[in-house]
Amino acid sequence: MNVHASLLGAYHPQQGWLFRLGTGWKYLLLLALSLPPILVGRWWFTVAVALLALGMLWSSGIGPRKALRVGWMLWSILATMAVYQLITLQPELAVTTPGNVLIAVLASRMLTLTTSTPELLDALVRGLAGLRRLGVNVDQIALAIAVMVRSIPYLMGAFDDSRDAARARGRDGNIVSLLIPTMVSAVAYAQSTAEALHARGLAERESR
């Protein structure tokens, strides 16, 4: 499975400062990196923040090659966004629009590459604790996010695997050869996830 090419990346413990930083501070860092480029809206600021994000990851042992390994689908989307802005004669937006998206992804990877999923969810539950007073089931929200965090890399990897298999058979131009195996993998993954939740008693707990 091509999990290494996923949007969120996989967590592997290291000794960099981002790995030691508290999870709450990482969430704040995500906002501090993602929001200013959108508000400023200048190409040079977007480039500067993108380089800053790469530098912060690099200083924690995550080099540019690994940091930018976000999957060919995202790069295709970013390239399409840039080309569209160039066609419409908006060169600055050709940098800021895809650049700001890339910054948000890099900032998110600062979380997912340097923090285990349980730590991410525990911090999220603590941050949302005030919603319990409004009757919100915070644990259920955290569970939904956990399933999403696990599912996105798997599904992207399943698509990449289907593409590689179709290419090996010389059928990479056949969309059916890509979609059907991916859908089968997605259904199987959904069933195994549901069985895992049921085995832990979460399905019964939610139905009460």
Give a quick summary of the entry:
The protein has two domains: 3-115, no CATH class; 138-207, no CATH class. Helices cover 74% and strands 0% of the residues.
Explain the overall architecture.
This protein is 74% helix and 0% strand. With 208 residues, it is an all-alpha fold. The longest helix is centred in the last third of the chain and has 31 residues, at 138-168. The chain has 10 helices and no strands. Helix 3 (43-58) runs parallel beside helix 6 (91-112). The protein has 2 domains: 3-115, no CATH class; 138-207, no CATH class.
Note the topology.
Layout lengths: L16 H4 L2 H18 L2 H16 L5 H4 L4 H16 L3 H22 L4 H11 L10 H31 L6 H25 L2 H6 L1
Number of domains: 2
- The number of distinct helices, counting runs of at least 4 residues, comes to 10
Question: What is the subunit organization of this protein?
Answer: single chain
Strand content: under 5%
Structural class, by secondary structure, is mainly alpha
Order of helices and strands: HHHHHHHHHH
- CA(first)-CA(last) distance: 37 Å
Sequence stretches where pLDDT stays below 50 over 5 or more residues = 1-5, 202-208
Proportion of helical residues:
over 70%
Overall form: globular
Q: Tell me about the biggest sheet? A: none
Rg (CA only): 19 Å
Q: Give the strand tally.
A: 0
Overall pLDDT: 77
